[in-house]
Design brief:
Distance between the termini: 94 Å
Radius of gyration: 21 Å
Order of helices and strands: HHH
Mean pLDDT: 91
Number of helices: 3
Strand content: under 5%
Helix content: 55-70%
Length: 91
């Protein structure tokens, strides 16, 4: 008599929105010196990070996406303040 074996393959559950938030946040940080490009990246990183952080799997990536998006916006505001201040003092 032949024995039959059942093999169950489970795919680990992922959190695509959290990974997307992290990638968008990092790209926003790298490209923060480009005039208007980082704003949509940072905003999407914060939104996707907030949604991704609600899932229990890879929650840390979602939180990191929120943090990198927020840092990108803060750096961008500082960039504009310095740029406007420098141009005002030069005039």
């Amino acid at each position: 008599m032949e024995q039959q074996h059942t093999v169950v393959v489970t795919k680990p559950e992922g959190n695509g929105l959290a990974v997307t938030a992290l990638v968008l946040g990092i790209v926003g940080l790298v490209l923060y010196w480009v005039p208007f490009l980082p704003y949509p990246l940072a905003i999407l990183a914060i939104i996707f990070g907030a949604i991704g952080a609600k899932k229990p799997i890879k929650k840390g990536l979602g939180i990191t996406g929120i943090v990198t998006g927020t840092i990108t916006i803060i750096l961008k505001v500082i960039f504009w303040v310095v740029l406007i201040g420098a141009s005002a003092s030069a005039a």
